[in-house]
Structure formats: structure tokens, C-alpha cells
Please model this.
Amino acid sequence: MTMNQPPIPATYTGADESLLVQRIYARKKEFGKKLLILAHHYQAEAVFQCADVAGDSLLLAREAAEATDAEWIVFCGVHFMAESADILTPDSKAVFLPHLDAGCPMADMATVEEVSAAWDEMGAFCAMETVIPVTYVNSSAAIKAFVGKHGGSVCTSSNAERVLAWALNKGEKMFFFPDEHLGRNSALALGVDPTQIILWKRGQVLGGNAKEDVEQARVILWDGYCEVHMEFDPVQIAAFREEFPEGKVIVHPESRYSAVSKADAYGSTEAIIKAVAESPEGSVWAVGTEVNLVKRLQLHHPGKTIKLLAPASCQCKFCKTMQLVTPAALLWLLDNLAEGRMVNQITVPEDIACDARLSLARMLET
Ligand code: 13P
Ligand code: SF4
Model:
């Protein structure tokens, strides 16, 4: 998803970070309750500290839906999060993304055209009223609308098992997109037989499956993935356990099953924060998720040893698109709003929003 971010002047991008943060605070004071800044846990510290509320995707979606005073909701996160906020809020509220190129590469791995084509292919021999579509919240508004129209639900990493249980109870099959790994981890946790889980590979006839495989499947997984979480593996976990036999491993469920099955626990960003916070002083953790969250855990828990689950040489684990939301981009947006210019507003057309609202509402009710 590329939306063409307008250039941010060098007076912002070249400015000292602490000065930018001071000016953001001044704008927050000026706007008062009219402005609500939401930040996802993967935001870097400089932006994160400017937020009114921080959370995982579910918490932030609820927060946007319940925001009563704010007229402007600024989402320090990625595009699908701002879209969900716009869908869940009345027209009187405007939602903004500080950098328009901040998309989620995994969400882009399932377009509504591809998913509709796959649905139609299956429909040639499956009773589609018994197939329940479920989309991870990391997906476009158009995908959420498709799911809403076909009786399905959105899920996040914190309620995936609950939503999948609902879908499997409601229908004979579940079609899950875009994250193969969240889908597989949740289905296996619910006790689905691994032989009844198949992968739908993009660009292949019947997703690369025989007709009989699709017919016998309970769970059909789209082959999308998060490149940050794909990097965690059982070898890193074994190396950590050798060095810290008393240590605990927790990973995000976008990680592969081979890593999730070797971890002590897995969960959403909010669940990871809770598990570390509730552990006794002196605990040792390896955390498999985006590095900004791991750094923040280290900062907030100096009495605990918290390691990023990665080889020492690895400088990866950044969600590159999340990092486009910088203090410069945030201040540039707030200054524009102060001048009456509604730049970077995220608006989902009402015909898409009304169907997408159905799938989001099903999730919020489940
Ligand atoms: P959470 O909902 O767990 O915060 O995850 C969102 C996300 O994009 C993780 O990669
Ligand atoms: Fe998307 Fe992965 Fe970044 Fe989350 S961490 S926003 S899934 S690319």
C-alpha cells in the first residue's frame, strides 16, 4: 500500500528530536481534548511518549470506537489501524496517519481481488454458505468489507482463538487471511487436526491444492506473513535456553509454529507486556517480537533480564513501516491541522465501511 506521502520539509526532518517532541507537547496543550493520539507498541520511544493511549490492535480499535471528546484521532501506527479507527468512529471525527506510506506489508499480501477470486474458485465445488471467512485485523478495509458481507469476522492477535472457535462452530470450514502463522497457531491451539489445515498459495490454481484437499479441509490459510516475526526460530530458542536454563521465552503469534511450539508462552503485544510485568524481579526473558517493544520492556524492568530473541549479530526485527511515523512526521501533521489543513486524513468510503463495520462488530462482540 503506497499512498504518496507529501514531502515533509527539512525544517522538520532535520530538527533535533527533543525539540520536535517539545513542540508536539505544545500542540497537544493547545488542542486539548479535541486531539487524541493513539500509538501502537511498536512505535519508537520518541513518538510513543507523545501518545495519550498506547496499546495493541484490539485495545486501540476499542479506544477509537469509544473516544467521545476527540474530534481528531491521530494514529501512530500503520494504515490498517487508522482505517479501522475511521470505520468505528462517527463522521464527526477525523482520523489521521502521520505518514501515508506507513502500511503493513503483510496486510498488502491479500488484496480483495485475490481473495474474491479464491472464494469464487472454491465456490465452484464447495457450499460457500458453510465457509466462514475470518480476517486478521492487519488487512485492508476492502477485505474487512468482503468478510462482513460473507458472514465472517475480524480477529486480532489477542482474540484469534476465540474468533476462530466461533467461526469453526458456525461453519464447516474457515478461510483465514492474510497471516498463515496466526491462523495455524490458533487452529492448532484449538485442537484442529493438522491434516485438515491447508495452505492457499497466492497465484496458483486452487491455491496449489487438489480439489479433494480443499473439500476435506477445516481450515484454509492464506500464505501471508510478517517478515519481522518470520525470523524467530527454534534454533534461537534452544541457544537462549542453553545460556539461560531458568529463562522463559515468549513470542508473538505471527511467528511460525516451529517457534511458538518451543516457546513457554505466546500472545499479542499487550499479552507480552503483561507476562513480563507480572514475572518476579530477577526473571530472565527472551522476547520474540518487534525490537522497539523489547527495548521498552528493558527500560521499564531494569531488575529483569530481557533479551530480544535473535542472534547477537542481528540488527533486524524493526517493523520498517511503523518507523516512518517519526516525531517530524507527527509534528508536521499537527502543525498542518493547526493551520486548518486536513492533511493525511484516512477516510474509508461509506459503501466499504458499512460492510467492514459488520466484521469488526462481530469481533468486538465475540
Ligand atoms: P498486536 O495486536 O499484538 O499489537 O499486533 C499487531 C501487529 O501488527 C503485530 O505485528
Ligand atoms: Fe505488519 Fe509485521 Fe509490521 Fe505488524 S510488525 S505492522 S504485521 S509488518
